[in-house]
Amino acid sequence: MKRLFLEIIIVGLLFSPAFAWEYPYIYKPTTPDTAFAVIALYKVGEYARALEGCEWLMQIKTPFDSWGYAYGEKHEPEYTAMAIMALMRCENLAHGRYYPTITNAAYWLIYTQNSDGSWDSYFGTALSYIALREYLDLPPNGYIDIRNQVKEAVRRAREWLLSNAPSTDIEKIFGLMALGDKKSLEELDINEELEVYKAFALSYLGENVNLPVRDYDTPMEVAMALYATEKEEYKEKLLDLQHFGFWGVLRYRVLDLIDVSRISEFRNLTSVACPYLEKITPQFDWEKVVLADYYLQCGVSPELPSNITGLLPWQIAEVARIKYYLGLDYNDEINYLLSSQENGKWKDFFNTEYIILVFKMLDIPYNYTSSLEYLKANLTWMISEKDDTGAPIYYKIPTYYFAYALVLFKEFNMSEEFNATLKILQERQYNTGAFPYTQGSVAGITSTSRVLWALEKVGLVDSEMYKKGVSYLRKLLFADIPEPRLANGKVFLENSTLILIQDSKYIGNATNSAVVSTLDGYIVIYPSQYPLSIEAYEVHGFRPEKNWIVLPIILAIGGVAIVIFKKVKIKR
User: Fold this and answer.
1) Alpha helices in 113-253 (DSSP H)
2) Phi, psi of 345 (to 5 degrees)
3) For residues 94 and 502, is the Cβ–Cβ distance under 8 A?
4) Is the dihedral of CA 143, 146, 147, 150 positive or negative?
5) Cα 405 to Cα 179: distance, rounded to the nearest angstrom
């Protein structure tokens, strides 16, 4: 099994059977990314990977057999149309497996169609029209017959598309694709970023296209590029972007993951999160400062503000620290801080402690006495004083204040303050091992990782507090995925569901084990409830029941023949 990263839809229990391997899971499946990937991979003959994507689409559908952008999000026509098109291709590989869902989804589109023939938007109408047109070419299998209703929905949708103008370039592309107007699509002048959309649409209509080589970012765009060109480089990239059978987006914030990667046991998350950091562009000076350390963590030289006067004191200290690592002069920042302190204090507890830590790290000549006395007195005040509700003041103080304080008090051998701070953190930690932002608030990845970082700095990696925190993050961000065992033509995997395919037909499910020697292949869903992983295995090889033909449909509209081609499609 590929060592990839994913996120489960519903965070369930982690399983630890024999022969299990631990994998980080930090992504979640999305309908457009997964559906487009299926459509492209089906076209280039990667049937096993396409089937994996289809099974994930089955997992994230609504009870109405419709789809939103991701699991739990509002179902919409455009995403439902995307999923229908993907599942129709997999139905050609496993006849009978997806047909009921496809038909129910088509009926949902009919039910949600507006009286004027449209759906929620021009884009949604174009995609729904294409999906329903494809549905009419899907061979029936004895399930409920809605073909007459589909034909009527297609007719009304086409009339609406012909009588309404698209407002965006994407709407123009998919509108022309829906209406089969290759000439207008070829002549459409669009910006460079949308060339892959246009290439996809033209390829869907049967045209050979030349797409300039670009480093597309999203799975959906890579899938469109693969569909249009069938180039090996795009196929390899799309497969690299697959996560346990699906394609999607990060579940967690990039900065949270980089924070976790500072902890020794989670260093491998850096390579996963850092590519996404490039998509975050700081707009203000304070953002440049906050993001600077994250860029350094990812091996990127950050842009620092040229004017420090509008920054908070700790942020100015941070600029000095970053400049130190970059080999730049930081005297201006240090001099500014030295001249702005008031009896060893900068603004408040956190600003002061952070500056003192930076001074110590940079070996700045400074008399620390007054600053340390301020921090000591302020800690005592937070512990002894109570607010209007009778709760100690420190309950409202963010956890990261105490994480940095722990490091500082250790650095200056202030054992009494160190122990008091450690006690606050012990009290604040939940039974799960997580730390909240403030006492009693929601547990957070960043707060937990900051405390664990501090515990590492002060040498408390063997403490119960550290071990519980690491366990929390590991349970949250990792999953144990076992490998199926194959012996004498039979496959075994406890707590799994096996989808069995023979002669391009779905022949049923099995639980935990099945004889597979005569099959085209089988799909392993693990675990059976709240799946973490879906993987297809070929035996004699998956193959289409029939070729997916580019079928021109001639529509006479106002005396003009419009050619509509039937092929593969989709995109947002």
Assistant:
1) 122-136, 147-163, 169-179, 182-187, 195-204, 219-229, 232-240
2) -115, 140
3) no
4) negative
5) 65
Q: What is the DSSP string of 86-154?
A: HHHHHHTTSBTTSHHHHHHHHHHHHHH--TTS--SSHHHHHHHHHHHHHHHTSPP-SS---HHHHHHHH
CATH of the domain at 201: 1.50.10.20
- Tens of pLDDT along 391-449? 999 999 999 999 999 999 999 999 999 999 999 999 999 999 999 999 999 998 999 99
| Residue appearing with tokens 């509700």 | 389
Residue with tokens 């086409």: 158
Residue-number span of the structural domain to which 221 is assigned = 26-244
The answer to the question of residue 210 being in a domain is yes
Spatial separation of the C-alpha atoms in residues 426 and 394, rounded to whole Å = 13
What is this structure's pTM? 0.78
Residue (of 185, 158, 161) closest to 173 by Cα position: 185
Each as own residue / partner, the long-range contacts of residues 340-345 (CB below 8 Å, 24 or more positions apart, any chain) are 340/313, 341/371, 343/370, 343/374, 344/368, 344/369, 344/370, 344/371, 344/372, 344/373, 344/374, 345/370, 345/371, 345/374
What's the domain count of the chain? 1
**Residue 168 CB partners (closer than 8 Å, separation 6+):** 123
